[in-house]
Amino acid sequence: MKLTGRTILITGGSAGIGLAFALKFIELGNLVIVTGRRQTVLDEVKARHPKLHTIQSDVADPAQIAALAAHVKANFPKLDVLMNNAGISLYKNLKSTTADLAGLTVELNVNAGGVMRMTSAFIDLLKANKGTLINVSSALAFVPLPCLPIYCATKAAIHSYTQSLRFQLEETGVEIIELMPPAVKTEMTSDLREDDGITLITTDELVKQSFESFKAGALEIRPGQSKQLAFMRRLAPNFINGQLWKASKKLVPAGANDSKPPRLSYT
């Protein structure tokens, strides 16, 4: 992946992983646009990092995506990198029925639906500019963390979708990259403890390892523990699934089919 002289759009870029990547891309001399659903947060980020371009947009809302695409195509026609990063994770108890059937698909709508809608909205621009698409899935695409059952299912969906994109776009000149982070030390993962057997890396380490892979031309990037989890999925799936269940069991909400977000939802 070419790392300089790009025009880059990152969804969910006002905090956490998205912001860390945005700042690194700016450091390398790129023009970077980040989106988020909360204008006040975007204003704070812009004040701290004036070189960032910020646009309020919610990947869960098709109308907002359409408006974002129109705005970017008019004002940033050289856009040649889209990083689909925005996501939400909810702890879920699936033991019985729920009255909130719509709530069951919130993560699907944001995580998987957002990636698919954003990709479709910008694919013509990426093709015209021979650009790069980066989809952020997760190590949990390989092995689920059972306290986050629907979140993990969305990441598996993104993994499969990205593979299909790579095939369908193979003759268009669009580079398709999948970034599969392990657990990263952000507000979203503050409930996870390393002594439970889940290794967390910092955003700085994630960015460092990811950019090394970008430079090497990797199309499927598995930083930190992601590589080990993918290997264990093949070698001993029952063992690794059991270990992750043991590590996450206490995070399942007490009430049947209750759901609760980690400390931070999506940006």
From TrEMBL:
UniProt xrefs under InterPro entries: NAD(P)-bd_dom_sf, Sc_DH/Rdtase_CS, SDR_fam
Gene3D superfamilies (alphabetical): NAD(P)-binding Rossmann-like Domain
Molecular function as annotated in GO: oxidoreductase activity
Annotated keywords: Oxidoreductase
Residue intervals passing through the bilayer: none
Keyword Oxidoreductase: yes
SUPFAM superfamilies according to UniProt: NAD(P)-binding Rossmann-fold domains
Family the UniProt entry places it in: Belongs to the short-chain dehydrogenases/reductases (SDR) family.
Identification of the protein by name: SDR family NAD(P)-dependent oxidoreductase
Organism from which the protein derives: Bradyrhizobium niftali
